[in-house]
Amino acid sequence: MDYPRYTALSYTWGEPTPTRSVAVDGADLEVRQNLFDFLHAYTTERWGMHGVKKPGLFWIDQICINQGDLHERSDQVRIMDKIYKQAKMVLIWLGCEPEMIVAACRLQNTENDSMCASVTLLAHPYFSRIWVVQEIALSVNSPLIVCGGSELYWNFIRSSNVSTQQIAVVSMVSARRGHTGKMRTLESCVRYHCKNNCHDPRDKVYGLLGLTSERWRVRVDYAKDVLEVYFDVVAALFEELFDLADPECLYPERLTVMATPHGYRYTLVVLARSMGVPRRQLNGLESFLEYIQCAYLSTKMRDIQYTYTGRIYTRVQADFSSEQILAPEEEIEVRWGSITATRRNPSMRDIISEMGLQLASVTAEGIAGQGGDSTRAVDRWWCKHDGEIRYFECPDEDPISPYP
After folding, report:
1. Residues 132 and 246 in one domain
2. Mean pLDDT of 130-143
3. C-alpha angle 121/100/197, rounded to 5°?
4. 48: helix, strand or coil
5. 247 is in which domain, residue-wise?
6. pLDDT tens-digit profile of 119-136?
């Protein structure tokens, strides 16, 4: 497929106000201050000391995505991994703060205090954000870091000796670039990175999807609320665990994973906490997850026939009498249609048809025939299994949690 050569910008959005006006294709567009600073530096600073010509075409999310259109935003985030993989370069913008500019200059000139300079750069809020993990890890070439008018390649930081306090940051980004050929599970991506910062709790998951195989991704949909997205991840992770535990499934040779039911529940508890689920609701979450996991992993259902309607990827040379839904990684044809297929393992929704969270105000009067208690009001998780609704109360007192 032919597409223009472009540079993908990786940066922090910063505070929503104040905004600045920039001209895009003859129209005024409001952008946040940090992006405005980058555009100003791009037009006024002299870059190119590494022999890299100043980029002429950029992909910048604030400009290229209509953030007010949830459908467009969802569609673009679904292909974010391809946007950064196909970019000729990823440019990291760390702003115009004097200390960052000085640190970049010292690293670029390989002065003796390169360790202190690396620590200064890695302390930038940029490196605490969740989106930067995949943006850097997916870049084909070494990303270029720019601070004001100073520039250096990411490899300068990778080769620097950093302090103990920065080990986590280096592991988060540098090590990911060193293992771009290794398949990752969605569970491992969520477990290691969901505590990173983001403005939208849904991005605790959406911001990591590009790091894992398409077969294990949840569908990006910003029209869903945070709890709906969380339940999507519950289903996706337990399906992934079921998949990994099935000895008859085939995986790429480079996939190595230690998958345990306890580990997957741990990750989902950590994710719920990082997405802002209140402490009192976390109290009942473990038993809820354990029940769902046991019900799903113990199912005897196999060879489920289903119909897929939507975008279908087929190899250009495929025999259309035996179409398969494929990841768009090779030369393919994309079209819309409907096919009937058979999957070996059931989806979790085949076993647990519904799940949710009832707040105390909803359950205060009890639910007839379902064990409702009118004497007290507590939040409770629930799921529907075998036609019966099961509840998992969130006690007010702090239980002895199996997780730190």
Report:
1. no
2. 86
3. 50
4. coil
5. 186-300+347-393
6. 888 888 898 899 988 898
* 241 neighbors 297 (Cβ within 8 angstroms): yes
Look up the pTM and report it.
Answer: 0.80
Max Cα distance, the chain (Å): 74
Residues 109 and 151 in one domain: yes
Edge to edge, what strands does the sheet with 388-393 contain? 352-358, 380-385, 388-393
Residues in Cβ contact with 296 at an 8 Å cutoff, skipping those fewer than 6 apart: 238, 239, 242, 348, 351, 352
Rounded to 5 degrees, φ, ψ at 290 are -65, -40
One domain for residues 243 and 358: yes
H or E segment to which residue 86 belongs: helix 80-86
Give the SS3 label for residue 205.
helix
CB atoms within 10 A of CB 74: 16
Q: Are residues 255 and 355 in the same domain?
A: yes
3-class secondary structure per residue, 271-285: HHHHCCCCHHHHCCH
Give tens-digit pLDDT for 222-233: 999 999 999 999
**Residue 53 phi, psi dihedral angles, 5° rounding:** -65, 140
The CA–CA distances, whole Å, from 188 to 33, 175, 259, 262 equal: 34, 14, 9, 13
Q: Is residue 286 part of a domain?
A: yes
Judgement on whether residues 244 and 290 belong to the same structural domain of the protein: yes
Per DSSP, what are the bridge partners of residue 307?
A: 340
CB contact at 8 A, 367 and 350: no
Cis peptide before 98 (omega within 30 of 0): no
The tokens of 336 are what? 């819309």
Number of structural domains (the chain) is: 3
pLDDT tens across 342-363, in order? 767 788 988 999 999 998 865 4
Assigned domain for 177 exists: no
In a domain, 398, yes or no: no
219 plus 320 within the same structural domain: no
Same domain, 339 and 351: no
Token pair of 141 as six digits: 């070439």
Mean pLDDT for the stretch of residues 42-61: 75
Residue matched to tokens 């997205």: 229
Q: Is residue 232 located within the same domain as residue 339?
A: no
Q: Would 179 be classed as within a structural domain?
A: no
